[in-house]
Amino acid sequence: MTRAQDALQFPFAARHPLLPPDEFARLRRERPVVRARLANGHAVWLVTRHADVRKVLADPRLSREAITRPDAPRLLPVAAGSKSIFVMDPPAHTRLRRLVGMAFTGRRMERLRPAVVRLADELVARMAGQGPPADLVAHLAQPLPLTVICDMLGVPRPDQELFSAWTDAMLSVGPHPSPEVDGAAARLRGYLTGLIEEKRRAPADDLLTVLIGARDEDGALSDEELLAFAETLLMAGYHATTSEIVHGVLALVERPDDLRRLAADRDGLPAAVEELLRFSQAGGGVGPIRIALEDVEVGGVTVRAGEAVLPCINSANRDEGVFPDADALDLAREPNPHVAFGHGIHRCLGAGLGRIELTAALDRLLDRLGVFRLAVPPEDLVWRREGVFTRPDTLPLRW
Description:
By secondary structure, this protein is α+β, with helices and mostly antiparallel strands. It has one domain (8-398): CATH 1.10.630.10. The chain is built from 14 helices and 13 strands. The strands form four sheets. It has a six-stranded mixed β-sheet with strand order 1-2-3-9-6-4. It has a three-stranded antiparallel β-sheet with strand order 5-13-10. The chain has a two-stranded antiparallel ribbon with strand order 7-8. α7 (162-170) crosses α8 (179-201). The radius of gyration is 21 Å and the shape is globular.
């Protein structure tokens, strides 16, 4: 196949949002690195096997920063010359990651755990008091990660709901730029710019104040870097965790025997959380695009300099060569080398926090509601499919 012939259309359609597209399994067997075309017309190399995905995520010759060039292939709206840590290469990435990484150490995340558990308990208690039935999305899956990440940054709680619609638009998959995406990005940046100025005048005990101090006193962060990191943290820290909570709960209610065993043995929660992360299709197979800075061999294919590579995280997590019976949910799976949080220097800074939030959400649900179930037939759920993270608009539960 030449680079122009027979390019697949991506994203693929799955038979159900909780299932990976059938094409992933076929490609892992037959064409693990294959040419594809995105909905916005850009061409990429899809990479589907676990070992190849890890290579792509860790290879410094495959650049994240290059996607900020005006003519570069991209899946999400990324401003030319963006200063987001998400699209930086070393040495700029190394400097910024070292600075902001101090706020996400394992020790700091563990100090947050009691507050996250208390918040999850309050939210589930409120949910229990208003149901059954009660909507998991509105009562727990949205407010828990949104409140946690906004509290970390220092966003006043009355303002937190503003971010949901803005970040929804900014994480849409489709043609960019668009008036909706540009308008949402402008409103978010405007709000955060004002908040940064407030924190500069009246410092507080929050992450944004720490980062402002580091920039102002040490010259470590530019204005653009500070603003871009706050935006990235809000989007990644909210939407990804919301969707993972929803997908995790759906996976469990579809398997009541597993749910009962987990309710009876909460010591199994850490392993269960890892398996739910591996099993989840919340990201829809969309990974972070890289651009080759030079010719690179991936899975027996030569990716030429300037070409885009899309590592399919969800496909890698179903690789039969790494995960025995990969399409089965095994809550005690060990080992479980999933790449749900990425790999290499861009591995998710908030991985520890995400695990704490998902664990707290499931633990409090099991503690207060016991064995819960869907309050509507599964086919009645209305799925949000236009964004990077797929989930139902509502998830009514009974118990």
